[in-house]
Amino acid sequence: MTMEVTGSWIVRQSVGSTPCLLGKSVDCSYVRGAGYLEVDVDIGSSAVANGVLGLVFGVVTTLVVDMAFLIQANTYEELPEQVIGAARLAHVEPAAAIVPQDLTPPPPALADDDNAAASSSEDDHLSKKTN
């Protein structure tokens, strides 16, 4: 992961801009599925990361952080490494965060002749959702 930080001098000095191996700095768990890789990062698993987070959290609304992610190559055959994703976090407002109510994916689309038969069961499913 590489980061570029725009913010106060103290934050820039604390966070830096040198790439880090995230999996060696904090605990991570990985879920690999068809067409995706999920990485859950436990920032609280590192005293250093927790300290930086505490410093940054107070000024997070003034920061712009650019991050790029790649999977580290461990063998010659895995080269060249390529960026698999990037994100810019700009002026994040923690107070505006919401907890998602339902992360269940929608059911797969049905063929037209199946729609009539599934309509009543779909209505039952929708009526049982809680928010």
From TrEMBL:
Residues 5-93 form the Protein ENHANCED DISEASE RESISTANCE 2 C-terminal domain. Residues 98-131 are annotated as: Disordered. The chain crosses the membrane at residues 47-71. This is Protein ENHANCED DISEASE RESISTANCE 2 C-terminal domain-containing protein. Keywords: Membrane, Transmembrane, Transmembrane helix. Residues 122-131 have a biased composition (Basic and acidic residues). The lineage of its organism: Eukaryota, Viridiplantae, Streptophyta, Embryophyta, Tracheophyta. It holds the Pfam family EDR2_C.
